[in-house]
Structure formats: structure tokens, C-alpha cells
Write a structure and sequence with these properties.
The chain is α/β, with parallel strands linked by helices. 44% of the residues lie in helices and 15% in strands. A hairpin with a 2-residue loop joins strand 4 and strand 5.
Amino acid sequence: MRRRSLLGLCVGLRVGLSVGLLAAAGAAAAQPRELVMWRHDTGDAEMVASAGAVERFNAQQQRWRVRVETLPQGSYQQAVVASALAGRLPCVLTLDQPTVPNFAWAGHIRALEGPLRPAGVDALIPGGRSGYAGKLYAVGQFDVALALFARRSVLQRHGIRLATMDRPYAAEEFRSILRTLKAAGWRYPLDMHADRGDEWPSYKYSPWWQSAGADLIDRRTYRRADGVINSPAAVAVGRYFASLFTERLVSRKPIDDHVFTSGRAVFQYSGSFDMAEYRRFVGDDLVVLPPPDFGRGPRIGAGSWQWAISTTCAEPEGARAFLEHLITVDEIADFSRRTALMPTLAAAADRTELYRQGGEGRPFFEFARAWAVLRPETPAYPVISSAFAKAMQDIRDGGDVAESLDRAADTIHADLERNHGYGH
């Protein structure tokens, strides 16, 4: 009896151990698989909004768990580049739209095509999608939009009509308005933050080129800038730009950033990111108007921080599910309500107080939906941007327009030659 009992106990222990091991294995298999996400440290509102989106994704399904790692904003780009070269990128990361083509060309991020294409992406406005070589690589929840800001009372006092989307100011009409204001005593009737460098000229002034039928590069092939950035239409816009300074309609170097808010300028050419500040200073007298039309309808820049999936991600299906979650109506609307940033989805805009139909931010959304043009989706963009910025600085400071644009075309051509067209 004792022997039989011991034998039974051993069998029971083995059975119990097997069941326990199977249960443990099942529990381990049921554990959510981790997706590491990188983002840069931004304002409190954006961080809170982003954290909420992650919490909701983790709570609504059990297959994956997103873990956020926040990097300092000032060193974020360098950290991403270094990690990409070392093959140690996280599954999901945020990238500034103009950098997306370079990461795609270098093979660091996955094309969001086929099984990885997030549902709902086709409903995003142009600034909510970014690609390279005809493929989608990143999606975004928000964007910004350029506009003309003005004081309604000043325009009325001088008999100047309010531009509308159906009838924007033609470029010549706008310059004539500025000349009228100049003659009426306004020292610099328009402010454009003309002394800003970096990417500001490309983002802000290249839409004038596109509005005139020119561009920074031939977007059919992305292999030619000569005859595009310096075409006759481009030179005409460059001369228009130069005239704003030679006629002292715009200051080459404003003494501060408060020319418009202090009442020293009638118009300000800037973006939706300045709306709150202008509203504080100008109040209900503020009007938001379309940018000028250089012949083919107004154009504005597009594309801000967006989400991409790295090629080293071991859980691309989970990463796609997370991106799909981020661009739902509910998530984009929540992000916009918390941050006041412009949503990239019409249905989401309609759920916000600021960007709904009749909301004071609605013009920005309509401008972005109708006129937005992404900065050239090519790895050559950093060189394109710096070459164009240099040309605009030279033109602003009195340089010959055609020669300045020719030098920009030569710089871009040399970069394309060195890099064999970047595979375009």
C-alpha cells in the first residue's frame, strides 16, 4: 500500500507539474507583446494627449502593449539618426515629414503598403500622409496651415476688400494693396518674419512658386531642378519677392517678432501656430485670409510630425494596428481638442470646437484641404531646402534673382548627380 501510494503520488506530481508548466506556458504566450515607441518631448498638452492615446490602445486589445520612451526634443533627430545607423530603432517613431523620404530611401522605415497600410489613411488630408517613390511611409494626426492675418478695421478704413477662398487676392492686387497702405503712412504694411532662416523660406515661400506653376524640383521624376526652380515663372515670383523689399513694403530685418501684434503692420504672413497669440493681441478684429494667388490658385506648405514603423520592428502587425488606432476619428479629434493643433481628418475637425464648421480655426483646415503641397518627397530635400533658402536670402538682400535661382539649381543638380538621383 505504501509503495502504491508513493507511486501514485509521483504520478500525481508529474501530472500536476505538467499541467502547471502548460498553464505557465499558456500565460506567457498570452502576455501582450511589447512595442517600443519613441517620441520627442514636446509641450505638456501634446504629451498628455499622446499618453492618453497609448493608454486607450493598450486597454482595448491584449495582443500588444505600447511602451513610450521620450527623448529630449533638442537631440531627438541626432538620436534617431544614430540609432538608425546602428540598427537599433524602436518599432514606432515620430519623424518630421521632410525627413521621411530620407529614412525610407536608406531603408530604415517600412512602406505602409499591403497588409501594413492602416485603414482610414485615404481620408487624411495631404498633410497627414508622407511617402517616397510613390509609397506611403508615415501618417500624422495634425498639421499646420499658412495664411494671411490682418486687422478687419484697418482694411475697412482703407477700403480694402476681404479676400475669400473663392476670390483670394491676386498677387498683383495684393502688392497694389500694400502700396496703398504704404502711401497712407504704414512704414512696413506686411510682415513675413523675413529674417528667419533654416527651413522657414522653403516652407513659407515655395508655395508661391507652386502657385505660379513652378516648383523646387520636377516632381514627376525628382531628378531635375534646372528649368523648374529657375523657370521663367519662378524668376517672375522671385522678382515679386524682391520688390517687397526694394519698395520697403516688408522689412528685411524686423526689429522684433511683434510687428503685427503691436499694430505696426496691417498684414502678417504666418501660420495657424500663431493664431492664439494674434487673437490675444488683436481680439475680434483679427481676420484669417487666404495667401495670395500667383496664377494657379493659392498654395500652402504641408506636413508636420508623423508616425512611421522601423524596418527592425519585430511586430510590424502590432505597429500597424497602433498607427491605425492613432488616425481614427476619435483619436485625432481628442488630440486636436487637447492641443489646439489642426486635425488631419475632416470628421475629426467637425468634432472640435476650434476647427468645426463655423469655428475660428476652420479656415486653416479648408486651406490645408484645398491647397496644401508637401515639401518635395525626396532624400534630396535637405539640399533643396538649403539651396532655396540661400537664394531667397540673396534675393532679399538685393542679389540678382535669375542668378540666385540658377545657383540654387546648380547646387541641387550636383547633389542629385553625387547620389545618382536617390533611386528615383
